Amino acid sequence: MGKQVNLRQALRQARPATVSIRLPLEKGKPEQLLVSVNAKRYSIQRGKTVEVPWAVAQVIQQSEASDRALALRLRALAEHPPVAVL
Questions:
Q1: In whole angstroms, how far apart are CA 85 and each of 27, 68, 74, 77, 82?
Q2: With 0-12 CB in 10 A as exposed, 13-18 as middle and 19+ as buried, what is 56?
């Protein structure tokens, strides 16, 4: 168990405490993005470069990746709809 604690400490020290991000302004999306990490809420202004905790940047990155994957899947389903078998 001692090795796990040391590994966790090493990983925390290796990553930055904060990260600069800039969320693009997008039509139809609110001007601010709300993110919640460990019961803390963050309101991130779109169109401005801001410093956020590393974990918040990771949540945003994972959310954007999920959105892209969903868009690709929906496009694939629209091009090739599943065949209903009766």
A1: 40, 30, 21, 16, 9
A2: buried
Strand intervals (E) in the chain: 18-22, 32-37, 40-45, 49-53
Q: Which amino acid is at 39?
A: A
Residue 54 phi, psi dihedral angles, 5° rounding? -55, -40
- Per residue in 5-37, pLDDT tens? 677 777 777 788 899 999 999 899 899 999 999
Phi, psi of 16 (to 5 degrees): -75, 155
Give the residue among 62, 31, 58 at the shortest CA–CA distance from 47: 31
**The pTM of the whole model exceeds 0.90:** no
**CB distance 59 to 37 below 8 Å:** yes
